[in-house]
Amino acid sequence: MDRPDAGVRLAGCCTPVPADEVTGFAVRGGVVTVHRVECDAVKRMAEAGRAAVDVRWGDTTECRVTLFAESFGRPHLLADLTEAMALEGAEIVSATVEPPSQQRVRHTYTVQLPDAGRLPTLIRAMRDVPGVYDVGRAHHQAPPF
């Protein structure tokens, strides 16, 4: 990183994980926030003239990532989905399940993985749960800069 003494924070809007192409921006207090390069917040900050900070991943492969799952409502869906995640080694840090709307349910999970390389396998395992029709990384709407 260009600023070796700066604190680092992973952006919640795009949940970068090791192996993602990333960039950083200095924020209040001298902290550098790391974003995925395709994040909408990166585009807005660049358009606003904010200078990017060169960042790169260290040796760690452990990661925390936010995923969403879209599914049709059915009995035991939550149990089946969390079991599939646990079998892939994901530690669920937080979970939100929105009330069903027209038999469709949106789940949001923040998980800790021992290795970012397991993320594609985790997403496939979640998609394989009956009733789940979409799983992906969350892209939260970041506030304007």
Q: What is the CATH architecture descriptor of the largest domain?
A: 2-Layer Sandwich
Strand share of the residues? 25-35%
DSSP E strands, number: 8
How many structural units, i.e. domains?
A: 2
Fraction of residues in H or I helices: 10-25%
Number of helices: 3
CATH C-level category of the largest domain: Alpha Beta
Across the major sheet, the strand order is 1-3-2-4
Distance between the termini: 22 Å
Question: Could you list some keywords that capture this structure?
Answer:
single chain, 145 residues, alpha+beta, 2 domains, 4-stranded mixed β-sheet, 4-stranded antiparallel β-sheet, 3 helices, elongated
Written account of the structure:
The structure is a single chain. The protein is 19% helix and 33% strand. The chain has 145 residues and is an alpha+beta fold. It folds into two domains: 8-53, no CATH class; 63-137, Alpha-Beta Plaits, CATH 3.30.70.260. Strands 1-3-2-4 form a four-stranded mixed β-sheet, with helices on one face. The protein has a four-stranded antiparallel β-sheet with strand order 6-7-5-8, with helices on one face. Strand 6 (91-97) and strand 7 (104-113) form a beta hairpin. The longest helix has 11 residues, at 77-87. It starts with 7 loop residues before the first strand and ends in an 8-residue tail after the last strand.
